[in-house]
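Moderator note: this is an archived Q&A kept for reference. The question asked for a predicted structure of one protein chain; the sequence and the answer are reproduced below.
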Amino acid sequence: MDSSRLYIRDLKIACIIGCNPDERIRTQTLVLNLVLELGSMKARQTDSLEDTIDYSVLSEILTHQAKQSSYFTLECLAQNLLQTCQNFDSNIRSIEMDLEKPQCLPNARSAGVRIHFTKRP
């Protein structure tokens, strides 16, 4: 089955995230990577924004949602952001999301979570 994949790479989002007392009072910058598989490839022929995902709007929505949130775990925030993507457009067949917390471990570039959703036929 043919499909198109759109992606957003290295979207920086700031929010309250974490369990430690200092993490509950200051925002941290997270990095979001997102791949959306679309069922329709109409935009390939029409060159029309109405036939695809407006990733600029989606990235603004996800950034705003995260900024307004306050989670203890990346897993819960990622699940809620994934749900927002699911609701954004019914043409999305699958979503893969990586949400990273840079510099949270002293000897690693980042730690994070990867979640995946596939719409049932």
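Archived answer notes: Residues 74-88 form the longest helix (15 residues).
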